[in-house]
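Team,

Forwarding the record for the chain on the shared tracking sheet. I've put the sequence and predicted structure together so nobody has to dig through attachments.
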Amino acid sequence: MPSSTAGPEIERLIGLLAKLPGLGPRSARRAALALVKNRSGLMEPLASAMAQAADKISSCQTCGNVDSQNPCHICTAPARETGIICVVQEVGDLWALERAAAFRGRYHVLGGSLSALDGIRPEDLNIASLIDRARQEQVNEVILAMNATVDGQTTAHYITDKLEACNVTVTRLAHGVPVGGELDYLDDGTLSAALRSRRPF
């Protein structure tokens, strides 16, 4: 087994970078080397930005989005429609819909999807707070923007059952979202068309 070519600080940096989605050991080493080679222009500003983010960013108490204010900018924006809530699995899905600029309502982030295999139960997700919002707020429609996976659709059916007593219209994204697809990987046009073509669930 070859000996390490870097000190423990660099190896720790590489190890942490390798834990990021999309970065394997080789990509992490390249990223670490780029940071080390550009300390003042890249590494130090990145370290500062990460420290500020760790200090100031938190989950929105209303919708589950991440932001530097609580409630978040979307929940407090006066121009957003208060009668429509779009339910997504993760914050990345919220960001994908915002990129498409096709939705002007509010959001609710579940924090995942139901999964018997992974042991994720309804109480592990932000479902109860969604039902509370649907009951207490002037909500007319709940859009279920779940990933088109088995777990995503299982979660959508569960939420639909729970919303029956809330006197709201429940819709879902049109089937333009491919089966097995995840919102964060779809293009803006597909997302916009899916929102426009939503129908009762």
